[in-house]
User: Fold these one by one.
Assistant:
Number 1:
Amino acid sequence: MADAGGHERNRAPRRLDRGPAIGDLLTVESRTRRPVAGSPLEFAGADKNRAADLRVARQAGHMKHFIFDFSEGSREQAASFLRAGMWALGSDERHRDALAPGDRILIHVAWPRCEFIGRAELATGFREWTASESAACPDGRSGGVLLADVEEWLHAVSLDVAVRQIDPTASNPYVQGNAAGFRSGVVLITAEEYATVVALSREARQT
């Protein structure tokens, strides 16, 4: 949206919800029968468990930080996964089994330019998709993670800018080795690197 002078107003990051917040999800109980597989009662129980896992992870402060790299499609395709609250992962991803509820992730899109387009928190570790989840995330992979507290950035953060901020002397071989892009879909990073990119996204919104 533009102001009276034709200048674009600063926009807050777009927080994406698939419905109620993860801590306020449906809490229907089965009084007289066990939930049928795939029924609303089953999903309600799963959502309660995910919310509990997130609370435990946050309280323990043991979350890890990752980059999820999207290298086989456009920014809009990556954003559609964020809006669905799901991220598909291949069976050969290096850090797949290390992912846990409460971990923080940055979303990086490799094409047409290397840039970070958002952040999220993991609501689950890796899991095989249910039939309904597979239908909602039809990219051919059989599993992935569910996302919470999703934030899509209208103003992306360039990978080049992030690398210069994180390693201004270009002396860190690990950082410089990924400066041109990532070679895997899940990349483990430090809490400081994560915080730097998030701070850059805030600065981009203020310019």
Number 2:
Amino acid sequence: MSRRAPTDAAAPRPRPRARGIRVNPVVSLSIALFLGVLAVWGLALAAAGRPPTRAYLVAGVIGEVELVLQGAVAAALLVAGHDPASVGEFLGYLLVTVGLLPVALNRARAPEATRFDAAVVAVTAIAVAVAVLRLQSLW
């Protein structure tokens, strides 16, 4: 008489992984490079003693649009079933990439903006670029 181990019917089933879908690494790299250029521009403005210009703020908004689009794609892929190694960490980086730059841009567009506001946007752009690259590595 052979004995078989009982199976636990209440055990959770693993979530099926979505095959072949991922956040495009070329897009992530291009966003990180754009944010790097934005950072260098902001540091140049700060070094010259100038507050953020209108063109600089528009470039920041363009960067934020890129980040929101990437965040929407990542969120859609998560809903479709892709399961990164650490979902909590992934969501944290996703929130940072989408939410940090608007805070710095909001302060930089104030009428009393100074050269330090350009530097704050530059440092924020560097931090968000690192978060974008980390988000890609978690994917």
